[in-house]
Amino acid sequence: MRLIIIGTGGMAKNQVDHFSQIDGVEIVGAVDTDVNRLAAFADKFNIEKRFLSLDEAIAWGDFDAATNVTPDRAHHPTTLPLLVAGKHVLCEKPLAENYEKALEMTEAAERAGVINMVNLTYRNVAPLQRAREMVIAGEIGTVKHVEASYLQSWLVSKAWGDWRSESTWLWRLSTGHGSNGVLGDIGIHILDFAAYGAATDIDHVFARLKTFNKAPGGQIGEYMLDANDSFTMSVDFANGALGVVHASRWATGHLNELKLRIYGERGGLEITHRPGESELRGCLGEDAESAIWTTIEVPPVPTNYQRFAEAVATGVPQDPNFRHAANLQKVLDLAMVTERERRELKV
């Protein structure tokens, strides 16, 4: 697979690290509108072809696939030309800023007949994959209740950088710079984590969003800090289960932690994922009587990057695809409506 990188920011570096370790993948080009950033990136990773516009890259055309690592707002206008050109695409999450644009991208990809995937990175968490298998196999019985949380602390610490002075973080706090806040940034991850692990789709949603004051006048330089910082959400799942999902950037002591608890009529599962460590625990069978939880060993699973490369090589689609990400975006969009209207909505 001859691959080009669209956007050369921090996540692009992470993707190059992953793709460069996969046999049969050659990174042949990079695209960015910032000439200095593009040069530094291409020099670091020894990428020969460099383009200041996507049109130039498509006109060159000597590539099979692209990974789209541009900011959220740019996913839609940059992915569509790639699909028209018949290129396979791995797109960063969220697929688009709203469901309408995400659906347009989905339908374009399906018309083009190309491999299309969204980099919901926590699909790489082996305990999540194993938990889903156990749920589908009926090992905990019918799922009745789900709890999911995604906790970050970068608004109360500088572990990832200083959000007060670094544009990398400031744009994520500003709707005017394309951010839908914590809901749009990491909400899509925890909703996917919950629904995928519990092996059922979200059917109804009611959400509360909160933006806290972070600076005098709610502004730092050109950035209006008006995007949501925390959300809580109650959901009904298609199988009848009830769920509670929440996320925050104010979670002191939690650098980047996802947790999922799945309770069935015959057992429970708990997945915890933090940087560098993941764990699956179960309370199953007779242990349910005495509430004994046991750690379940889980082998590694292929990453999204490996599965995308395999899909391009074999022509066999892999998940998570654009349609799945568009459906998640529909939930996020409706969550914002429920906040405004204070009512539950059906997905």
TrEMBL record:
The keyword Oxidoreductase applies. Residues 129-270 form the GFO/IDH/MocA-like oxidoreductase domain. InterPro entries: Gfo/Idh/MocA-like_OxRdtase_N (IPR000683), Gfo/Idh/MocA_oxidrdct_glycsds (IPR050463), GFO_IDH_MocA-like_dom (IPR055170), NAD(P)-bd_dom_sf (IPR036291). Keywords: Oxidoreductase. GO terms for molecular function: nucleotide binding; oxidoreductase activity. Residues 2-119 form the Gfo/Idh/MocA-like oxidoreductase N-terminal domain. The keyword Plastid does not apply. It comes from the Bacteria. Pfam families: GFO_IDH_MocA, GFO_IDH_MocA_C3. This is Oxidoreductase. It comes from Rhizobium tubonense.
